[in-house]
């Protein structure tokens, strides 16, 4: 079973339209300076009080009449190679599953989609191809993995969305325009403004000023028809 660092018993926003709980899984290959859950980066952290997966499944079995959906989030849920065991157990109970992912494990994503163990995927697209590695806090990122995950999601037949978190430092307009190189077509891409929290690694980061957001939307609409602005960031 996967390593789980936290559990939120009820959310009305993580899977809109459904009564949802959120499960926070450990591990992530990225080191994004604006990450809200940097404490979950290690796959097997010894500094956190972990949640027993079997106990969590037992509890969720008793809440199937209350909840509709389980959101698997993190860090990066697909870092956990045992995730399919967990999703299979949830599907057996009858839960809808929403997966939050950065798309860096396309083979694992493909397996979940092929086995119908995911009902919705929300994938973070960090930036333009040229700025991807820096935005992820790395020297290098295998962009082919990102492209493959985008393709898998678009062809999967499940509900999906792409999303980009905006910061002043990493997301100038020209970089955002270059996101079109990912061939998103009409696929929905939600822009959500950065919000600083105490857990964010780089406390100097700033959101895009509110007065500039509509200008960004107006500039991007012609090149990214599926663009949307998510007000709650």
Topology:
Elements: E1 4-11, E2 20-25, H1 53-61, E3 69-74, H2 83-93, E4 96-101, H3 106-114, E5 120-124, H4 132-135, H5 143-155, E6 159-166, H6 173-177, E7 189-193, H7 210-220, E8 227-230
Parallel strand pairs: 2-3, 3-4, 4-5, 5-6, 6-7, 7-8
Antiparallel strand pairs: 1-2
Helix pairs in contact: 1-2, 3-5
Overall description:
By secondary structure, this protein is an alpha/beta fold. The chain has seven helices and eight strands, in the order E-E-H-E-H-E-H-E-H-H-E-H-E-H-E. The chain has an eight-stranded mixed sheet with strand order 1-2-3-4-5-6-7-8, with helices on one face. The longest helix is centred in the middle third of the chain and has 13 residues, at 143-155. The mean pLDDT is 95.
Helix content: 25-40%
- Terminal-residue CA separation: 31 Å
Number of helices: 7
Q: What is the typical, i.e. mean, pLDDT?
A: 95
Are there runs of 5+ residues with pLDDT below 50, and where? none
Using DSSP, what is the number of strands?
A: 8
Outline type: globular
In what order do the strands lie side by side in the largest sheet? 1-2-3-4-5-6-7-8
Beta-strand content bin: 15-25%
User: What Rg is obtained from the alpha carbons, in whole angstroms?
Assistant: 17 Å
- Spell the H/E element sequence: EEHEHEHEHHEHEHE
